[in-house]
Specification:
CATH topology of the largest domain: Neuraminidase
Shape: globular
Distance between the termini: 96 Å
Number of strands: 28
Strand content: 25-35%
Radius of gyration: 29 Å
CATH superfamily of the largest domain: Kelch-type beta propeller
Number of domains: 4
Length: 559
């Protein structure tokens, strides 16, 4: 064959694309330097008589609001100075600092106006960060103010967090001055819930009276529309008679008629409030029926120091793998189906019937396995922002792989999430938990965070504990964990990515931990449960964390 007839040589080397991360970071740093030096600025943003020289290109790249302003036929696109209304000058300064540096500074005193500015300028990251910050820092002294703000701006995560705290602390919150600043719709939403922690329905009526009397002339006409949310079926005849004889009711014939109609109907479907029943907290005990005959569930009332133990026969519940308590106070367990070791089901606790029922979710299919692999999996169930995640890791630590799936309630399917490759496969005992809008996966010498919105893992500073982690729990923006002997307890600040050691257990010397310690959070307080053996007997010890020391609250001997 002639040389001209031969096919041209095709190179086996394919073209590639390269990404210079140092350039990306350096570019932003250079832009920030130009702003500080006042170089190449071509527009001035004026807010409340304060002037902020900026770059149109930078503002347009960061904010859809500015991009529309500078790239359209709007008059502002041709102006040297643009005056903005409805913005706080200090907040614009914070926004510009973020745009030019990528760093956002948030505090409770400025988070609301900062959110408003970000909402106007369409800065999703700033807005989402502010909402997460508010949701994680809801307190009894601020919950009403944050609830009103979240209600106006439809920030559901903050709104739900506030409602939950208001319900659980209704007596205290209703006595505060800011409670009377609620709108009628906000008031009725709060008192309509079953989760209201009151011992008597007259407490709800008293809160309504106080709200009306705060601005009697403007609010008295709202009383007939509020009264249907009072559960008269939970009141005694004497309580009802006292309400009918109240001055607010007697002076308004219309209100009297509304109450009489509501009382006559006495809707039996209106359930008792949360505080009218004994408040219980799930502790921890879900043991495999391959090891124990029964599955034990321990519940307690921390305020009274009372305990109740329930047991279930294997026929009533498949093999239990993990348990989680969700933000809406439902208890779910992850179980292996009897027919297949590769299938996982979700069961839900029926509080009223004290039974475990199928949660009505599709099964979690078996995990991806290595060829010819007989790996034993460590499986955990965690909720993040109302979504259940199922996590599985190599329990023997050989592969270092962590698999995860999330439940889509709309399709009733478990969807694959990004895998995590651990660096240290020897870190056998690991805890998965949620804090804010993230999922954290940590061991004693390695820690990672998963962002559900990005389906992405990132590595964080590990606790570097001397012993293996036994238990971990999140409270607000912090994570607490301790070892199996409760000798070393550490605190992690999720905002600063820093750890600090806390004071250990002041063991009197005659107690020995006989089971795995378990941390849990109830009413914004940290608690721990220990099963200890003394020289004479076994004791069930419940302890409350005081941040500086540990104080024994209640002791119950086990039979």
């Amino acid at each position: 064959m002639a040389a001209a007839d031969q096919e041209p040589h095709v190179s086996a080397v394919r073209p590639r694309s390269y990404q210079d991360e140092s350039y990306q970071h350096g570019f932003l740093g250079t832009v920030c330097d130009l702003q500080k030096a006042g170089v190449l600025q071509d527009v001035v943003i004026e807010v409340e008589d304060r002037r902020f020289p900026c770059h149109r290109l930078v503002l347009s790249a960061a904010s859809p609001y500015f991009r529309a302003m500078f790239t359209s036929d709007m008059v502002e696109s041709r102006q040297k100075t643009v005056v903005l209304q409805g913005l706080d000058a200090d907040m614009l300064g914070e926004i510009l600092s973020y745009i030019y540096s990528g760093t956002l500074h948030v505090s409770l005193d400025k988070v609301q106006p900062l959110y408003q500015a970000a909402d106007l300028l369409q800065l999703d990251y700033v807005r989402d960060t502010c909402s997460s910050y508010m949701a994680m820092n809801v307190e009894r002294s601020t919950c009403v103010d944050l609830y009103k703000f979240a209600d106006v701006f439809s920030v559901d995560s903050v709104r739900n967090a506030c409602l939950q705290l208001i319900h659980r602390n209704f007596v205290e919150v209703a006595s505060r001055e800011e409670f009377c600043s609620l709108s009628v719709n906000q008031l009725t939403e709060i008192i309509s819930h079953n989760e209201l922690d009151v011992k008597e329905e007259t407490t709800v009526w008293g809160a309504v009276v106080r709200w009306v009397q705060h601005s009697r002339e403007d609010r008295l006409h709202h009383l007939p529309s509020i009264l249907p949310y009072i559960r008269f079926n939970l009141l005694t005849s004497d309580d009802t008679a006292a309400i009918l004889d109240h001055l607010l009711v007697r002076e308004d014939p219309g209100t009297f008629e509304v109450i009489r109609n509501v009382v006559q109907k006495r809707n039996p479907k209106l359930k008792p409030r949360l505080g009218m029943t004994k408040e219980m907290a799930i502790l921890y005990n879900t043991e495999s029926v391959y090891i124990y005959i029964y599955l034990f569930l321990s519940v307690m009332n921390p305020r009274e120091g009372k305990y109740i133990s329930c047991s279930y026969k294997p026929k009533d519940l498949p093999r239990a793998t993990d348990v989680t308590v969700t933000s809406d106070n439902n208890i779910y367990i992850l179980t292996h189906e009897r027919e297949s070791d590769g299938q996982l089901s979700i069961y839900k606790y029926n509080h009223a019937g004290n039974v475990w029922e199928d949660a009505g979710m599709s099964s979690v299919s078996e995990w991806q396995t290595i060829e010819n692999d007989s790996t034993c999996y460590d499986e955990q169930l965690v909720e993040v922002d109302g979504i259940l995640f199922c996590i599985a890791a190599d329990a023997e630590g050989d592969s270092g792989l962590v698999w995860m799936k999330k439940y889509n309630r709309h399709t009733d399917q478990w969807e694959e999430c990004s895998q995590l490759q651990l660096d240290v496969v020897a870190d056998v005992y690991r805890e998965a938990l949620s804090c804010g809008s993230y999922l954290y996966y940590l061991g004693s010498i390695e820690m990672h965070r998963y962002d559900p919105s990005q389906d992405r893992w990132c590595k964080l500073t590990p606790p570097m504990m001397e012993n293996e982690i036994s238990t971990a729990v999140a409270m607000r923006t912090e994570i607490f964990c301790t070892d199996f002997n409760f000798n070393q307890t550490v605190l992690y600040d999720t905002e600063s990515d820093q750890w600090q050691k806390l004071q250990g257990w002041p063991n009197p010397g005659n107690l020995y931990i006989d089971n795995v310690p378990r941390l849990f959070v109830l009413e914004n307080q940290l608690h721990i449960v220990l099963i200890c053996t003394s020289e004479s007997q076994e004791e069930y010890i419940y302890m409350s964390w005081e941040f500086e020391s540990l104080e024994s609250r209640a002791v119950r001997k086990l039979s």
